[in-house]
Amino acid sequence: MRADQILQPTHEGLYCIPGDFHIDPLRPVHRALITHGHGDHARAGHGSVLATAQTLDIMAIRYGEDFTASRQIADGPVRIGTTTVSFHPAGHILGSAQIAIQPDKGPKIVVSGDYCRRANPVCAPYEPVSCDVFVTEATFGLPVFRHPDPMQEMSRLLASMAEFPDRPHLIGAYALGKAQHVIALARRAGIDGPIAIHGALQRLCDYHQAQGIDLGPLIPATAADMPSQLVVAPPSAFSSPWVQRFRDPVIGFASGWMQVRARARQRGVELPLVISDHVDWPQVTQTIRQLNPSEVWITHGAEEGLMRWCALNGFAARPLRLVGYEEEPE
């Protein structure tokens, strides 16, 4: 059985034929396997959902306890149809996983979802999984994207806070994963006092703390006489009246896209912080070399750039041209 007889792109998303399930489907389906809790991968309304315990918890926080009719924790190999599936850490956000599909007959396929090779203090590290077919994202799949050490970016934040001690520093970071990542990095950089957070971050930060991830003291950004110079908020807050409560703030944004200066200017970002939870160009090419799969399938992002690299380096590759992902800020 060929790989394209096992896994195929459809309007709903990737569909496994011998298992009769979808991975990160874009529309409600009867059986969904979910790689992680970001809204462009995890949607409510499926008949059943198989995911890591943390991803299921996150989906319940975001969508309510009734986000699916049936849920199952992926805590080991699971038999579905004529396939065996297993979940392996992706290093992207808390609970994120790659999904390995081993049919009874045919090649082993690993769907990586969104993944990152750089150590992240708020989630388990990426685990290489040998396979015949590797399905990879290419969000930053161009040679120009080479993300710096995140602690280097934290040093820039601390330097700005020292230079402008009377100006609050508002850092835009996506509510799930990136916000907690930024807070944890700030702690490692030596910020021990209270960090203020937008209300939209509270429940997800509380969940990370409950999972044993120490984010230190957090206070509401709306607190009277707020004793914190550092404020973390979702990007949407910066286009709302909420931001007007702060006097002469330094506006920052934490994203791999901040390497593109035009994007920072468009957002009015004074302090761009290049902090990403995705693989950059060296990481994605390193991963392909390390796994040495027979085929590379590219789900979304800079497909053509990675396709070209694969061709030049002897890897058979194909673009899946899936749409509907990357809808949320990186």
Automatic annotation (TrEMBL):
This is Ligase-associated DNA damage response exonuclease. Keywords: Exonuclease, Hydrolase, Ligase, Nuclease. The keyword Hydrolase applies. GO terms for molecular function: exonuclease activity; ligase activity. Coiled coil: none annotated. It comes from the Bacteria. It is an enzyme of class 3 (hydrolase). Its EC number is 3.1.-.-. NCBIfam families: Xnuc_lig_assoc. It comes from Paracoccus fistulariae.
